[in-house]
Amino acid sequence: MWWVVVEEQRGMGDGREWSLSETFPQPDRETAEAEALRLAREYQPAYPWSPKSRKVLRGPGGYLVVVEGRTSTFHFRLSVLEEV
After folding, report:
1. Residue 23's closest CA among 41, 36, 11?
2. Looking at the record's lineage, which domain of life comes first (predicted)?
3. How far apart are CA 26 and CA 80, in angstroms?
4. Euclidean distance between CA atoms 32 and 42, whole angstroms
5. Which residues span the domain enclosing 39?
6. How far apart (Å, rounded) are the C-alpha atoms in residues 67 and 72?
7. Taking a C-beta distance cutoff of 8 angstroms, is the pair 45, 74 a contact?
8. From CA 81, how far away is CA 11, in angstroms rounded?
9. What is the pLDDT of residue 79?
10. Positions in the chain short of pLDDT 50
11. CA–CA gap between residue 31 and residue 25 (Å, rounded)
């Protein structure tokens, strides 16, 4: 079993912290990687509330997505992980 895991920044100002937001089980790695790419382009993070732009960066095992809002910038990670 493979998983796509979403971790994102939550909170405002100095109170920002990383949080596990969502998990999406997938039957195989290929499907998990396709789902991670789809989510990198479409997932709506908790913050910012009014996204203006999105930058998707691919790295080993997943994506880092930077979302610029009207007044602040937040980011989230999508990891493709195998259950052992």
Report:
1. 36
2. Bacteria
3. 10
4. 15
5. 2-82
6. 9
7. yes
8. 26
9. 97
10. none
11. 10
Q: What is the 3-state secondary structure (H, E, C) of 21-80?
A: EEEEEECCHHHHHHHHHHHHHHCCCCCCCCEEEEEEEEECCEEEEEEEECCCEEEEEEEE
Q: How far apart are CA 84 and CA 71, in angstroms?
A: 41
CB within 8 Å of 76: residues ≥ 6 apart: 6, 7, 8, 9, 21, 43, 45, 64, 65, 67
What total of structural domains would you count in the chain? Answer: 1
Q: What is the pTM of this model?
A: 0.87
Q: Are 5 and 23 in contact (CB under 8 A)?
A: yes
| Residue written as token pair 């979302």 | 67
In tens, the pLDDT along 14-25 reads 777 888 999 999
